[in-house]
Specification:
The protein is mainly β and 546 residues long. InterPro entries: SbsA_Ig.
Amino acid sequence: MPNLKAQFFNVKNTVVLAASLLFLGCATIQAPQGGPKDTTPPKILSMTPKNQTRNFTSKKIVIEFDEYFNLKDEFKEFSISPDQEKPPILKKKQKKLEITLQDSLEKNTTYTLNFGKSVADVNESNVVKNLSYVFSTGPEIDSLSLSGKVINALTDEAEKEVTVFIFPVERDTLFGKKRPSIYTLTDSSGNYKLNNLRKGNYKIYSLKEASGGGDKIYQQISDEIGFIKDTIKIDKNLDNINLKVFKELAGEFRVLDRKLNNDGSISLIFNQQLKNPKLTVTDPPKVDVGKYVHFNKTNDTAKIWLKDLSFDSVKMAVQDEGKVLQTLNFTRGKKDTYTRDVSITDNAAGAKLNPYQRYTLTFPFPIESADPSKVTLLEDSVKRTNFQLLKDSVDFLKYYVIYPWKNKRTYDIKFGAGSFTAIFGAKNKDINKSFKLETADSYGTLGLNVTVPDTSKNYLVQFIDEKKNIIKSTSLNRNITINFSNYPAGKYFIRVVYDDNKNGIWDTGNVKNGTQPEKIWYSTTEMSLRANWEREEKLTIPAAPN
């Protein structure tokens, strides 16, 4: 007779074993990948010797973090103040940062080690911002502070992560030559604070470096700068020392970039906005004949098309107001070939044409002729022939399609191959465009009654959008009504430039000359435009702020 009891226990053991294996298998399942992104930088667990140590005698400082970290650009980011001939050596060991002092220390002196953005976590590169370590070789630590805010001189917005630094007056000659040792970064609201300062006279600067910078040395070509002309005497804690950063205009003209494009045109970028520019091919002079030159609105870039490409090399002069600023040489290979694509862009944003604008076509090359017979215009699928192609009287890159556009109609235009012929006989391929005419009810008008504080001075009243792009700028020196007519409904604002030199533009500052940018005032009243609505507002311009 079978042993039923033994069979029962065998089955029971098998079930228990299977359940155990299943449990162990479940226990090894890993947590799902992903989750919220780590945005927290490493945290300091300890500093040895302690931060703010007095009567300091150690040769090594150890900072321990709660996670692994990387050192990045420590030669650019790290500094010690006062400077030392032999800079400290930074070395990471596991989660610890060791700083070895190589040079001797002065007696009764406060030292500040500033790490900038050199310490960041391994995975997400979250930076430990404004990390510093302070010690004194004497019984006292310098405890004065300097604080304030940095804003953009043009936009009036706070500037975050801008470097604010000071030089003792006797070392101000190092500005633009050597990176500062006393500095900090602004926070997200543009605020900064420099701590542990000693009594003395200083010059203060704020530096917004271009992408790819980071050496904390001012480069006029690419960076923005802010400064206070007068010396700052620090003998107590100072607050509200505010700075405005701006892009300084170059003192001497220079061509920043030049190239011969693959379509045969020449592109130039200048470091200044020219007033009355001119480009002339001086050698060989025959190449100058029939050339096309197109400057952008601010006259700081130019594009040139030479109709005679038989040259090996040309010499070109850049002039402004009749004065030669720079001479350039260009060379080309006789076997060079060029690709020319006669594309067309239009001003029907979002496939809607502003009823107060002409339908405008823009080309990448000078257009020499147009053939309306190769253009097909459909209005709600019905062919129309009573349109015109009109060349712009000044801009050789623009044409207009003239037609009595109607609301609630759909327009399809086919520009057949060869509708437009550019220089060198280049022609467009088939290009199709579609749009509708926006209704006039979508636009509004603002009448602005302006009162000026001083009729002997000049003001620029600028109508700007939410991104602070200038929609319209009006120069005035008296009480007047300005009409901003037929603009799309939306949020708009008023910015006023105190045009001190009466040249009709906003002028930035100059560090060498100690001049600040022309002052700007933003009206706090939002000048919103409602669809199919005329609005009237008063604008009383205050006296220029101090």
